[in-house]
Design goal:
Elements (H helix, E strand, L loop, with lengths): L21 H15 L8 E4 L3 E4 L2 H6 L22 E2 L2 E2 L3 E4 L5 E3 L4 E9 L3 E7 L5 E11 L8 E2 L4 E5 L11 E9 L8 E4 L2 H21 L17
Antiparallel strand pairs: 1-2, 3-4, 5-12, 6-11, 7-8, 7-10, 8-9, 9-11, 9-12, 12-13
Bound molecules: zinc ion.
The site of zinc ion has 4 residues, from loops.
Length: about 240
């Protein structure tokens, strides 16, 4: 369950959080979503008689996406859930994926590249939206961007974004990708949203990938006929 204290202080883009009273929204939406079933998730928004437009829980939205593991050479078993770790007095609200400097960083999903942003803590960063513009994916501490990367371009899952580095406030001896997901608000501003833990979505996608080839051989169908088989695996 994503929730955060209702702080009124301004927050930097590298640390996307919401100022909304998260507990109230989350409770209403979780209940609504459960009542409607997962069929509600693809639409992203749901109408209620009492309140009008309600934001569907980011965890539910993320569960409907088939995320790729965004770092070259990293498997699901190597991922650690660091979402709830403390960082400089606040909750991390992201996962750190350790990798050698220069390892490739890939897009976890299809969707538009919304912002290339350089910040003191995040260093070289990428903000990408999901195809419906309901979730934002945030990649930080890059060593450099991939050639040809530009704001507004359409990305496909596993497109090369850049390379693992230590830009921003990453410890020089610990290159890693800081990867965060947040649920965008109605205005769909790239710097504002409700943090969502990506750990389960990343590890679940990877386990599906491991099962996909076996399923293809059991049915005797050529793998080329399996829908999205190519996408159901880690990048690189
Ligand atoms: Zn981090």
């Amino acid at each position: 369950m994503s929730s955060t204290s209702a702080s009124s202080e301004a927050r930097a883009p590298w640390e996307p959080r919401t100022h909304a009273p998260a507990s109230a929204i989350g409770t209403v939406v979780r209940g609504l979503t459960l009542a409607m079933g997962l069929a509600a998730a693809p639409f992203g928004w749901a109408q209620t008689a009492e309140t009008g437009i309600v934001v569907v829980d980011g965890d539910v939205l993320l569960a409907s996406r088939n995320l790729a593991i965004p770092v070259e050479g990293v498997t699901a078993a190597m991922l650690r859930d660091t979402f709830f770790d403390s960082r400089d007095g606040h909750r991390h609200e992201a996962i750190d994926i350790a990798a050698p400097r220069g390892a490739k960083v890939f897009a976890v999903d299809d969707g538009r590249l919304v912002k290339l942003f350089t910040s003191v803590p995040g260093g070289l960063t990428v903000y990408q939206f999901d195809p419906q513009g309901r979730l934002a994916y945030y990649y930080a501490h890059l060593d450099r961007y991939a050639d040809g990367l530009r704001e507004g371009m359409s990305l496909h899952r596993c497109d090369l974004l850049g390379y693992v580095g230590v830009s921003g406030n990453a410890p020089p001896g610990s290159p890693h990708l800081h990867f965060a997901v947040f649920r965008l608000e109605a205005e769909r501003q790239w710097w504002k949203g409700m943090p969502v833990n990506p750990y389960l979505a990343l590890t679940r996608s990877a386990s599906k990938a491991a099962n996909a080839p076996a399923a293809a051989s059991l049915t005797g169908r050529p793998s080329a006929q399996m829908p999205r088989l190519e996408g159901n695996k880690a990048c690189g």
